[in-house]
Amino acid sequence: MARTISTRRKVIVSAIAWLIGLTLFFPILWTFLTSFKTEGTAIAMPPRFLFFDWTLENYQTVQTRSNYFRHFSNSVITAVGSTIIGLIIAIPAAWAMAFSPTKRTKDVLLWMLSTKMLPAVGVLVPIYLIFRDLRLLDTHIGLIIVLTMINLPIIVWMLYTYFKEIPVDILEASRMDGASLRQEIIYVLTPMAIPGIASTMLLNIILAWNEAFWTLNLTTTRAAPLTAFIASYSSPEGLFWAKLSAASTLAIAPILIMGWFSQKQLVRGLTFGAVK
Amino acid sequence: MGSISLQNVSKNFGGVTVIPDISLEIEDGQFVVFVGPSGCGKSTLLRLIAGLEDVSGGVIQIDGQDMTRTAPAQRKLSMVFQSYALYPHMSVRGNIAFPLKMEGADKETIDKAVNNAASILNLTDYLDRKPRQLSGGQRQRVAIGRAIVRQPKAFLFDEPLSNLDAALRVNMRLEISELHKKLKTTMVYVTHDQVEAMTMADKIVVLNAGNIEQYGTPLELYTKPANRFVAGFIGSPRMNFIEGDEAKKMGAHTVGVRPEHLSPSKTEGLWAGTVGVAEHLGSDTFLYVHVDDVGQITVRASGDVAFHSGETVYMTPMDGRLYKFDAQGQAI
């Protein structure tokens, strides 16, 4: 028998869910609204919610002052670049661990994950010095390397769990059917793993896009992505809330739009294997 | 064409020996069944022949050629898996055509072979469906179709019917037997079901703990079991084993007699006992009899015999149907 839930209970639960959802969404909404205010309205007390003179002035200022598109393209290059390199390294690694595991495979997986537990600031100085000596500071390559490194454990883990879900029998069947390793990968494994690879890719682009610690510390101008673009509005000339909000909106918009369109894929990918 | 020869083949997984040392000759065109209890190494042996596992020692020859270190794709064998292992993203047509595509056959050849296989297996109406839209029996037929299109040297079946329900299993059993008669290709078939083994095989390999207990035709195994293990494994219901003084009187450590080789009587016989349970199936009657100093004895009488729980029954083994085993379990 299905559980019966009273209408009263439904209303209360829905109200709580909406409250939590709106609370989480409010800062983004507020940033978005503030970006259309003048600096004066932005700090007005009591705060104005919807009834103010809407203006695009902040966006113009932001673009002329700090060249949004250069930062945007830097973000795209580093996020996509690190994701592609990460996948190229992680696919064979996860493949080997899922389909030909050894006694130490679990240990290797945990060891990789443990690197994520290290506080990044603990290795900031050595990495900064290495980057300085190798002339990688403020370069795309340098940033791609660092983003690949920090996200690789997550990519390997995610792919490993997807590959684990593919029945070995099917791969063995393709071997019996005369498929070479290359054919097995192209015709059997990849089509079956595509949902997993796609959601790993999406999540990793989001993580790389939002990464702020290393991107802020290892870049200045040439390779600076959108995180640095936002940060540049936070202090040097005093706080300009409206311009900071416009910069933030511009920085998070692409990833928000991408996330919105791919949310079905993302949820499916992240819960893949949890319920068979 | 498709003879398979195993010479001193062994297999260890880590420190565990699954197959200590097996030698076996399978002649071309034979239907050979590996049978044994679970964990006896029968599937491992099949996977060694397939090349999906590497041997730890010994030589595997297929068609007279050494294939011990050859990759599965080059052994020209086809395998049908217990889980069917169909490619979920391909249609039935795509699944059956896959081995030919891998060989690089042209489109015309592929179409002809796929249509031919589909008509043999009654799959013509389902060619454009995906595996998930098929029933268990249909999936198994697709798996068989995929195996037959490339005309392999031998077919390997790994418990192909164990996921099917009882009625379908009997049907598929017949279909596979008919397929063998039609194709006359070597088939190696793994099962834990001795009825499947007895009904389908030209020759049966009885395996126990990674060793071959006996290799022979179904009737040889039934009438001349080499040891107590084979005697107990082949035949249903199981053979009765009698040990102790009663066996010593007959000059053996253990005496075995099959339930269908005991004649029950109400008046006289070698052993007397009390009927515990009587199962009346119409065609047969099974009596589970308790005999003092001997233990439980199963009797299978043909037709409906008027014995009931609590009655006394006398049983006599038929002439020449008594099996004697020594202390090591070997037939005397």
From TrEMBL, chain A:
GO BP annotations listed: transmembrane transport
Chief place where the protein resides: membrane
Pfam families cross-referenced by the UniProt entry: BPD_transp_1 (PF00528)
Keywords, sorted A to Z: Cell membrane, Membrane, Transmembrane, Transmembrane helix, Transport
Record-linked InterPro entries: BP-dep_ABC_trans_perm, MetI-like, MetI-like_sf
GO cellular component: plasma membrane
Compartments (UniProt record): Cell membrane
Topology relative to the membrane: Multi-pass membrane protein
Keyword Membrane (UniProt): yes
Keyword Transmembrane helix: yes
Domain named ABC transmembrane type-1: residues: 72-262
Domain of life where this protein originates: Bacteria
Entry's transmembrane regions: 12-33, 76-96, 108-131, 143-163, 184-209, 240-261
Homology family: Belongs to the binding-protein-dependent transport system permease family.
Protein name: Mannitol ABC transporter permease
Automatic annotation (TrEMBL), chain B:
Gene3D superfamilies noted in UniProt: 2.40.50.100, Nucleic acid-binding proteins, P-loop containing nucleotide triphosphate hydrolases
Keywords from the UniProt entry: ATP-binding, Nucleotide-binding, Transport
Matching PROSITE patterns: ABC_TRANSPORTER_1 (PS00211), ABC_TRANSPORTER_2 (PS50893)
Assigned GO CC terms: ATP-binding cassette (ABC) transporter complex, substrate-binding subunit-containing; maltose transport complex
GO MF annotations in UniProt: ABC-type maltose transporter activity; ATP binding; ATP hydrolysis activity
Signal peptide stretch: none
Keyword Chloroplast set for record: no
Topology of the protein relative to the lipid bilayer: Peripheral membrane protein
The protein's name in its UniProt record: Sugar ABC transporter ATP-binding protein
